[in-house]
Amino acid sequence: MNDMTPVQTTLKDWETDQEVRWCPGCGDYAILKAVQRTLPQIGADPSKTVFISGIGCSSRFPYYMETYGFHTIHGRAPAFATGAKLANPELDVWLVTGDGDGLSIGGNHLMHVLRRNVNMQIMLFNNEIYGLTKGQFSPTSREGTRSPSTPYGSFDHPAKPAAFALGAGARFVGRGFDVSKHLPDVFKAAHAHQGAAFIEIFQNCIVYNKDVFNDFAAPKGAEDRQLWLADGEPMLFAKGTKGIALDRDALALKVVDVEGDDWQSAGVLVHDVTNRSVAHMLVELPFGPFPMALGVLYDDPAPTFEAGVAAEHDRAVEGKENNLAKLLAKGQTWTVSGTAQDPV
Amino acid sequence: MATQAADQCEAAVKSENPEAVVVRFAGDSGDGMQLTGGQFTLSTALAGNDLATFPDFPAEIRAPQGTLFGVSAFQINFGSTAIETAGDAPDVLVAMNPAALKVNLAALKPGGLIIADTGEFTKRNLDKAHYDANPLEDDSLAQYQLLAFDISAHTVEAVKPFGLGNKDALRCKNMWTLGLALWMFDRDRKPLQEWLKQKFAKAPDIADANIAALDAGHAYGETAELSGPLKQVHVDPVATEPGMYRTITGAEAVSLGLVAGAQLAELPMFFGGYPITPASAILHHLARLKEFGVTTFQAEDEIAAICSAIGASWAGQLGVTSSSGPGIALKTEAIGLGIMTELPLVIVNSQRGGPSTGLPTKTEQSDLYQAVYGRNGDAPMPVIAARSPADAFECAIEACRIAVEYMTPVMLLTDGYIANAAEPWKVPDPASFPAFPARFLTEKNATDADGNPQLLPYKRDAKGARPWIKPGTPDLMHRIGGIEKDSQTGNISYDPANHQLMTDLRKQKIEGIAVPPQDIALGEGAGKLAVVGWGSTFGPIHQAVRRARRKGLEVSHIHVRHIWPMPANLGELLKGFDKVLVPEMNTGQFKTVLRDQFLVDAQPLTKTSGQPFKIAELEAAIEEALA
Ligand code: SF4
């Protein structure tokens, strides 16, 4: 995000007159609403806000936001966003991508935008499938996913978006899911972060990968299966009866039972969003033995790319003048006098 | 060792006051031949000769020493009359080792002069160059003049006072050789001494050693030992238009032209690039020009390079990207998006030998189809081709103008030859170019049915261009993208009639671009034969046509800058000739476009050896066509 003067808006101000074309019941609707709910709360200015996307169901997002929007080409949104941000650092850039767009065809660009730490919010809608092209397995599909291109079940090992982001050097990693009421909070934290803020959003593709996240996202039993992380708070779940502690021998996280309120003696960790080592463990936590880690997993700002570009520019131009005539005549010159002659 | 044939040197360059001389410096890639050639070029320019150069270096960065594929050469043609090419065959070949001799001998004119460093003609180096016997000692070079002596030993001797190790001492060999060349062609050493002092300001010892080597080479020419037989040659300054001159390579000219173009458009420039031979030089030049409002961004790949440039254009800067054939292929999808979203963008393509990786360091013009036709869908895009290093400056400005005035990507074609070659350039006055300031929309540009102000992002102006609307502008929020858009609102539209309309509008916009009428480079506007070229073939075609005309042949030279859209009068012009010959360094791509556009019987003359056309080849083709 940028420092900016807050602007008064309502949710309605962020809606376009375009008919939303996702399948009825698609998780994208909930994410759209969550974003439209967040922006008035953070005082965003629609004319300085830009949504840039690649290709896929999620990448239709900009058409439904009453902001500047650029629906680009498959996988390359981070590169467009980088150029736009460098050209005008005042823009508040939101990037919308998916598991296919961001991790398959565009994995390279996603890696570099994170590593460079270009100041923007990156929302990766992970539905573990190719929706727009009618249901092929994606790089995040679980092993054994049956799809038109894997009729006998996929056998590639899935990519883990949050782990990828952290490995690429991201300084902010957040996680949520489409219908979660906490999603706007994750967006707000991402927006408050100076630098590339990566948010993995589990999104229900009800047509091609229905309810694939139900094992943790379904309301029933959610308490036991979701670990909502908050900075400075103990890592508790299951209504405070369980917590996450460090297994010091294995150098890994473990689930511990908590007696009463005494999470301290159970050794439950207090979440420190700036602890990169713990963040690495959180993004790798296998769901099943562990709950799904959600919220702000990691948030530790570092200098942004555009700040580096601006600083380098200032250093480089110091004492130099923008004089084109001088530039053209640079180096060793010589002067020819006398009359012109036709060389032919 | 004394000269074997120095007394015939005079014959090698024909006279003591020739019109033009071609010299080729050849050595191991580690011998500094490009640097030697570059400095010789500068001294030639300062002496007031017209000139053209041709650097020819290996694709390998550090090829094993002494090998045939590690040979690097630099050819310069200079004279007292207009010089258009780097020359067909050298008069003088400087061979720093056996491999350099072997690779370059075939090009030397019969009777030409070879200057060879005997110190490098060791058994080991002869083996590496696949010589069974030392060519300096058998009769195999009998048809040439040979000046062979131990340059290595002379250099080591000259730099002795500076206490360099043998290796460092030998690195001064190229300066020694340059000193000799400067003496031969009656050149001032001063600028070079100054240059060396500057270059090695942090290591004065090295500077002094190099200057000593330079002076020693020069003195060697003058000494009694040699000066009897070795004649000095003086090439008179060329009669040329008065003004201030400098030498410039194509890569520099493109960079400066882009800077000038951005300033004429009153825009900051964003350059997204990715390293590739031979286009990287543009990225390197621009990276040092930040004070001119230039941001350079070395992206993670070719695709990101162009996409970042389009993103910057969208945000209100002049987006520029540059690459060579294979890199341009990678950018193709994004070019389509630039065409669809109608954003300004300049794409510089320094063509090289293809397909695929092809010949990265050699020159070719084989991306013309790619430039004109190479995209999915009906995706028209203007294409401009520079004819020479100096011409690349104006072409870059022209590319910026069209991009900004017509809201479109534009491709500027140069090639490996133009990028690396240097020629004298009359420094232009930036004020002499008309400005074309970019205009951004600041308020809604239409009224809806209810009389309320409305934004129509695809409402076109008289040129067919849509408005440029910067994100950040209050109240003009809108969305663009690669999906077909409504011809007014820019909203997604799958309507069949709208797609037909938009396809037509995109085509009409590009076809309607105002390009200057085609001129005749040499000769009459009608007649027996038109030789039609584009790009870097200008020099050899021009010289060949000039020579043919001197022989009384009825031939004209037409050189096309605007490849797409073409000048409106070009078709009629070509129809005024009985025959049309199209020489190009590909298998006949422009010929096909000319045939397609004008139904003329254009005949191809093609060459894809990675080397520019020789004047003689073209002269022969002209004579054959008129026989
Ligand atoms: S295919 Fe799936 S992801 Fe795409 S819109 Fe439909 S439900 Fe949503």
Characterise the protein shown here.
Chain B: Residues 30-218 form the Pyruvate/ketoisovalerate oxidoreductase catalytic domain. Chain B: One of its GO terms (molecular function) is oxidoreductase activity, acting on the aldehyde or oxo group of donors. Chain B: Residues 529-588 form the Pyruvate:ferredoxin oxidoreductase core domain. The complex is a heterodimer of chains A (344) and B (627). By secondary structure, chain A is of the alpha/beta class. Chain A has a domain at 11-212: 3-Layer(aba) Sandwich (Rossmann fold). Chain A contains eleven helices and 14 strands. Chain A has helices spanning 27-41, 77-87, 99-105, 107-116, 161-168, 183-192, 214-217, 222-225, 276-284, 305-317, 324-328, and strands at 49-53, 68-71, 92-98, 120-126, 129-130, 136-137, 172-177, 196-202, 226-229, 236-237, 242-247, 252-257, 292-299, 333-336. In chain A, the strands form three sheets. Chain A has an eight-stranded mixed beta sheet with strand order 2-1-3-4-8-7-13-9, sandwiched between helices. Chain A has a three-stranded antiparallel beta sheet with strand order 10-11-12. Chain A has a two-stranded antiparallel sheet with strand order 5-6. In chain A, helix 2 (77-87) packs parallel to helix 4 and helix 4 crosses helix 5 (161-168). Chain A starts with 26 loop residues before the first helix and ends in an 8-residue tail after the last strand. Chain B has 627 residues and is of the alpha/beta class. Chain B has four domains: 15-226, Pyruvate-ferredoxin Oxidoreductase, domain 3, CATH 3.40.920.10; 246-426, 3-Layer(aba) Sandwich (Rossmann fold), CATH 3.40.50.970; 439-507, no CATH class; 520-626, 3-Layer(aba) Sandwich (Rossmann fold). Chain B has a seven-stranded mixed beta sheet, sandwiched between helices. Chain B has a six-stranded mixed beta sheet with strand order 2-3-1-4-5-6, with helices on both faces. Chain B is globular. The chains are: A alpha/beta (344), B alpha/beta (627). At the A-B interface, strand 2, helix 2, helix 4, helix 10 and helix 11 of A face helix 2, strand 7, helix 11, helix 13 and helix 14 of B. Strand 2 (68-71) of chain A pairs parallel with strand 17 (479-481) of chain B. The site of iron/sulfur cluster has 12 residues of chain A, from loops.
